[in-house]
Amino acid sequence: MRRLISTGSPFEKTAGYSRAVVDGDWCFVSGTTGYDYATMTMPPGVEEQTRNCLATIRAALMEAGFEMADVVRAHYYVTDRAYVDRVFPILGEAFGDIRPAATMVVCKLAKPEMKVEIEVTALKRDRAGG
After folding, report:
1. Tens-place pLDDT, residues 4-61
2. CB burial of residue 120 (10 Å; 0-12, 13-18, 19+)
3. In 3D, which of 60, 58, 59, 77 has the Cα closest to residue 69?
4. Which CATH architecture has domain 2-123?
5. In the chain, where do the E strands start and end?
6. Under a CB-based contact definition with an 8 Å cutoff, are residues 29 and 6 in contact?
7. pTM for the full model?
8. Of all helices (H) and strands (E), which one includes residue 51?
9. Strand partners, 61
10. At a CB cut-off of 8 Å and minimum separation 6, what does 19 contact?
11. Closest Cα to residue 49, out of 117, 112, 105?
C-alpha cells in the first residue's frame, strides 16, 4: 500500500512531490535541504543546514513508521568541495553505526542559499530478527 508523507512545506505542493513515499516495506525520502520548516528559514552555515536536513528526514521516517536504522541508501549533495569535510562528521554521527550505501556529489542546488541536500531510502527490517 502506497502512503504519502508531507512536512507541510509549500514546496511540496508547488513542485508536486511528497517528502516521503512509503510503499510496502520501503520508504523513499525526497531530497531534503536545510530549511527549518517551522520558520521557513535557511540557516547560513552548511553544518546547521545538514543538521536540519537530518532532523527533517528523521521526522519523515518516524511519521512513516521507520527509524534512521532502517536507512539502506543515502545520497548527499553539497555545493562546494570544501563542505565535504565539514558535513562528514555530522553524517557520521547520524549514520556511523547504520552505515548505509552512500554517494556524495558536489553540484549546484535549486536555490543559491542551499548548501546541502540529502535523500535516503529505508527498508523496514524485522526488529526481532535484525
Report:
1. 998 877 788 888 899 999 999 999 999 999 998 888 899 999 999 999 999 999 999 9
2. buried
3. 58
4. 2-Layer Sandwich (3.30)
5. 2-5, 20-23, 26-33, 71-78, 101-106, 116-123
6. no
7. 0.92
8. helix 46-64
9. none
10. 5, 6, 7, 9, 12, 29, 30, 32, 56, 60
11. 117
Amino acid at 130: G
The three three-digit cell numbers of residue 55, written as one number = 532532523
Residue owning grid cell 532532523: 55
Residue 13, classified by CB atoms within 10 Å of its CB into exposed (0-12), middle (13-18) or buried (19+), is exposed
**116-123 sheet: strands from edge to edge:** 2-5, 20-23, 26-33, 116-123, 71-78, 101-106
All three cell numbers of 107: 553540484
Cell numbers standing for residue 46: 552548511
C-alpha grid cell, residue 47: 553544518
Cell, residue 13: 505542493
Entry field: residues in the chain? 130
